[in-house]
Amino acid sequence: MAHPAAQGRREWLAFSRRLARRRTALFGAVVVAVVLAVALAAPLVSPFDPLGQDLENRLKPPGWQDGAGYIHPLGTDHLGRDILARVIFGARPALLVGVAAVLISGVLGMIAGLLSGYFGGPVDDVLMRLADIQLAFPFILLAIAVIGVLGPSLVTIIAVIGVSSWVIYARVVRGAVLSIREREFIQAAQALGVRDWRVLVRHILPNAFTPWLVVATLDMARVIVIESALSFLGLGVQPPTPTWGGMLADGRVYLSTAWWLATFPGLAILVAVLGINLFGDGLRDTLDPRLKI
In this structure, what are the phi and psi dihedrals at residue 71, rounded to the nearest 5 degrees? Predict the structure, then answer.
């Protein structure tokens, strides 16, 4: 009998090979890895201070070289700040909000889905009605109301997005649990008198984790877009902290005279979201046993 650790390594290697065969998923994984690496190492890879202002050299085009001989590959903004440096540092709040909000909503949705799908009855009715009530609130109006009361900040954005996005996880996990709980090994565990919490944690949770992981991966792209939209509206992380949405808001005034102010942060959002979506699609196809290649 194979050692569990060795068997786990072989399964991980087989999964990696299947994922690598999907070129779009591999491309998405590379993009996500690059964006994550750039965000983590922003102080090391950024050529300039993202907050440094130079009003004498404002609105310089891409490729402009200053008096010291330094080249600004993406130009400067309306305050003379380097666009490339701000795009690099803008990845930090986007990814932080994406990861933190997905973890909060994912954990809440996982717990609600497990309880709703396993116990059914009144528990299922209460949790699913709460989900219906949550879906009845337009997210933007809810975000504006909460942020208006608490004030715009990184913590507030994470809390608003995290608490309001648990429904999709709950419904996906609930659907998986409804199928899993009818299988023979679950019924055997229940017949042996295994406690409900142990059945949920040891048997149902590992089998429901795969669809949860796929939803979490795809949902991160949506959260990044939401964070950018809130920052664009002035409800996100406040200046002078660079954010992609805030850079878009600043650049919309100069679209006819300085196109690069809004173009490059917009491209950053596009590339990051596209990479995450491609990776999430590939992860879904690889983990689905009906789509083995």
Answer: -95, 135
Distance CA 193, CA 288 (A): 32
| DSSP code for 75 | -
The answer for residues whose C-beta is within 8 angstroms of residue 106's C-beta and 6 or more apart is: 166, 169, 212, 215, 216, 219
Percent share of the chain, pLDDT over 70: 93
Domain ranges of the chain: 15-46+78-291
Q: CB burial class (10 A; 0-12, 13-18, 19+) of residue 123?
A: middle
Superfamily holding 15-46+78-291? MetI-like (1.10.3720.10)
Q: How high does pLDDT run on average in the chain?
A: 87
Q: Which residues contact 83 (CB under 8 A, 6 or more apart)?
A: 62, 72, 74, 75, 76, 77, 247, 260, 261, 264, 265
Beta strands in the chain (DSSP E): 64-65, 71-72
CA distances from 160 to 24, 137, 166 (A): 32, 12, 11
pLDDT digits over 89-125, tens only?
Answer: 999 999 999 999 999 999 999 999 999 998 888 999 9
Distance, CA of 83 to CA of 203 (rounded, Å): 50
**What are the tokens at 283?**
């992860």
